[in-house]
Amino acid sequence: MHDAQMDYYGTRLATCSSDRSVKIFDVRNGGQILIADLRGHEGPVWQVAWAHPMYGNILASCSYDRKVIIWKEENGTWEKTHEHTGHDSSVNSVCWAPHDYGLILACGSSDGAISLLTYTGEGQWEVKKINNAHTIGCNAVSWAPAVVPGSLIDQPSGQKPNYIKKFASGGCDNLIKLWKEEEDGQWKEEQKLEAHSDWVRDVAWAPSIGLPTSTIASCSQDGRVFIWTCDDTSGNTWSPKLLHKFNDVVWHVSWSITANILAVSGGDNKVTLWKESVDGQWVCISDVNKGQGSVSASVTEGQQNEQ
Amino acid sequence: MEKMSRVTTALGGSALTGRTMHCHLDAPANAISVCRDAAQVVVAGRSIFKIYAIEDEQFVEKLNLRVGRKPSLNLSCADVVWHQMDENLLATAATNGVVVTWNLGRPSRNKQDQLFTEHKRTVNKVCFHPTEAHVLLSGSQDGFMKCFDLRRKDSVSTFSGQSESVRDVQFSIRDYFTFASTFENGNVQLWDIRRPDRCERMFTAHNGPVFCCDWHPEDRGWLATGGRDKMVKVWDMTTHRAKEVHCVQTIASVARVKWRPECRHHLATCSMMVDHNIYVWDVRRPFVPAAMFEEHRDVTTGIAWRHPHDPSFLLSGSKDSTLCQHLFRDASQPVERANPEGLCYGLFGDLAFAAKESLVSAESGRKPCAGDRRHPIFFKRKLDPAEPFVGLASSALSVFEMEPGSGSMSWFVDTAERYALAGRPLAELCDHNAKVARELGRNQVAQTWTMLRIIYSSPGLASAASLNHSVGKGSSCGLPLMNSFNLKDMAPGLGSETRLDRSKGDTRSDTVLLDSSTTLITNEDNEETEGSDVPADYLLGDVEGEEDELYLLDPEHAHPEEPEYVLPQEAFPLRHEIVDTPPGPEHLQDKADSPHVSGSEADAASLAPVDSSFSLISVSHALYDTRLPPDFFSALVCDMLRFYAEQGDVQMAVSVLIVLGERVRKDIDEQTQEHWYTSYIDLLQRFCLWNVSNQVVKLSTSRAISCLNQASTTLHVNCSHCKRPMSSRGWAVARARGAGGPDGGAELRGGTSGRPQLLRIRAALRLLQTRHPAGPHRQLEVPGSVLPRKAPGLIWGQHGSPEHCQYLLLPESGPALPGVCGSPAASPGPYLPGQRHPVFLWG
């Protein structure tokens, strides 16, 4: 199994695995009921992503077979609604843009390219491709939360606010790159964040709750996890802070909803939770080791920190 | 490629050396074959037939077998094979159906030896017997296989596959007389070379053409077949019926398959279409290749391991006119890229984690710790043993649930639902919210609310009335109690350190309070020593003077040591600036806080939290009235809100913003406010807290936010009985006729043809009406809730028989939520545009 994602409401869980399958479970009330077993990929499925529910129940999956499939639930049954075959190599990561932008999917592939699929209505998808985004391959993509430049107040009501779309990607060139959509709709590399000494495995842009600063977590083959922050509004200066150096590959980083806790999973099959303490240091507040251990105590402590 | 170092492999005396390298051919290759000395390779194609020597650094052309002025079609090779016993003997299969043998030992330039012109169509494959020097087998597009004895002019025997075309023939290594052939119709046949009349065995191996097969070199009766269906299957031929033991799913049709020497479970494949790469698979890992060679720019047509006992050198020829030697260690390994774990933060603070089961189950013997209240594994996916994964990889998915009240988000939901944001006087709202927060164990928040109440609620009335009483109570019994509460409060967090302090506190009990929060103490300290009957003015003056001393008083309790008590440090970063002006109120506020640190321990009965706050309010009110401009606290409160927002508690920020309204609004820039609002609304909606979310939208002052309610909503209406959607044609928009909905809402009359439907309710106050041909007309109420600023409501109706008298209300973007069906009394709350809404049934 390569990925598991909860939907927006936390009621359904999608998983994907090497056996080409994408499965959706209903996980309400602590149960788990298999709702759908989606077949369509011809290789291991690396990642799944839920779209915002305002567009319906839509799930995207990407696979070693170089395809990205977008699934949709219609009248209770899941069906393939679109298949994107624009990559020359395994597609490693998919991520939906914040719903404010419309239905946009970013896909990062081992062929080094990132493609952006935009739904244009009537079952049509427009494809934009960033070639050579990362040499050797792109491993992860993550969208920045929708932040509006300037106040919404100035916008004439009814008109769509002028969002600046941004996302981060991590690749085999050890870099994290930030991409920004130009006014002409083209994507341009805005920043190159350099700190890792091996493949970047995952990047996660923190949900922006309450504060206008931007934060990105990244993890790498080199065992290090960095927290990148950008305080100035122009978004040009990012400073890394080493969260921790693990002994093994770090595969995933994931932010909690309120962006104050970061979950990190590593090659040693451990999940750790991290929280920024008052003095700006990141401290491990728990150690979820394969379902066992004395997590509760330390989490409780973390809670006290909050208070 | 140049940087690749050389590799030497010892093979019983002889050694293979080389590096990853390639050379350009004059023409596309169709097939390659290696000489048994592992030092030469023959490349054959439509217009190429050459022998290359494999040297350490490069390929060197040794011999061009394509001689003569006008090349005959006999030289257009579909396949080539080098005898594994005789270094001088080669055979080629020509596209015109001729089988040619070549003797390199011939002295003349033309090495052609024998010509067999028996096949009528292209010969796809030739194969020498592994141990017999003179036996050659061919398979042709004409559907026949022929066996030649090279000492004779004609074929010895002909085998009819009874089928269109033969794609591959391979002598068994295990059985002297046996060979396998594969066909375009998906069949594999097994023949005894002595019995040309009929095949020994036949089975359907693939869906579509079987392009290739290869016997396992280690004599185990395993046959690998590859087909257009993108699969490689491994068959055990020793059993009575061929049994599929492995199945590898590749991503392109399989044109060639070759077992890897010395690696029992490895085989190499290449495709004839689309995919140019060569893959090496571990048959036990059927989805991800173990290695991948990506050098070729066009379809790879021939692959051969350089030496039958060396697993690291692979040769390949391609349509891109190159010949390559690949070193296994230079291969890219897709497995490396594969992510073996999944991790996802759930909405309620739970964490899903998927990982290899082998690693997880290693832990299963361990018992959960006694205090571990998480439910460690919520489900485990066990793989069917029939699946090819067995023993290698299977995954377990664990979901870690946070302990209630810690990392979990239940506090968020509870708080959101119970907070009062409007409709009452400020003081009451603050009190109410403080109470809610306290009941949920969120002391800091509770304190903040109380503090806000103190700061902003106007003096007099309720608080004034209770003033005297409270003061009296506070001074007599309140304060001593507080001290003890504080001790209790801190004990779990501070541990031994606290106890240490406590001993100090024995001599002077108020030091303990200092520990709890460095700034909070100030007044507490004073009160304890001076008693609460000290006049407020005096208190103030005292504090002013003591500002610095207070810090000196207990320096070891500097902030870093006590991260738990973030409030004093972060919430009031402006302290010193304020101190420059009138310092007193700052401390008053702190003072207001302190009783709540204590009061929050609700079980520590006798001192009711409200009382304790009142006792201090009395003091603060006096100050408020006499000295301070009403907006004095604004900067402070704004900072506090920012602090909460930064801590991820945007709920607090927004709630306070709403409750305080104009009092602070102007001090926080619109953009930030808007951001908080949107964040909070989004969170609320994720938790399906529609009512709260709508209330927040309604109460928000930001135009951008409140216009969220103005957009239109799309509804889908299904019959709840038969679950069929209402027909879009059944609904029509008409003028209002004052239906009896809770809000005088719209009127709908059901009409169905049971076909997929779409009911769109666009603008406000538009009423809907429709006809219902199948049954009595019933009213459908469309709630005002779909319309801006209307009370919540629901839809019900009937189509067909009486059992059909319920309707589901479904917005555009979600399925029914059966869990939230309720009676009309439990009104669902206003709906937000573009969101998935709860479904209500009303029979």
Describe the structure.
The complex is a heterodimer of chains A (307) and B (843). Chain A is mainly beta and 307 residues long. The C terminus of chain A is likely disordered. Chain A has 1 helix and 24 strands. In chain A, the strands form 6 sheets. A 4-stranded antiparallel β-sheet of chain A has the order 1-2-3-4, with no helix packed on it. In chain A, strands 5-6-7-8 form a 4-stranded antiparallel β-sheet, with no helix packed on it. In chain A, strand 6 and strand 7 form a beta hairpin. By secondary structure, chain B is of the alpha+beta class. Chain B is built from 20 helices and 40 strands. In chain B, helix 6 crosses helix 8, helix 8 packs antiparallel against helix 9 and helix 16 packs across helix 18. The longest helix of chain B has 34 residues. Chain B is elongated. In chain B, 51% of the residues are buried. The interface between A and B is large, with 97 and 106 residues.
- What characterizes the major β-sheet of chain A? 4 strands, antiparallel
Estimate what percentage of residues of chain A fall within beta strands: over 45%
Euclidean distance between termini CA atoms of chain B: 75 Å
Q: Describe the largest sheet of chain B.
A: 4 strands, antiparallel
**Structural class of the secondary structure composition of chain A?**
mainly beta
Number of separate strands of chain B: 40
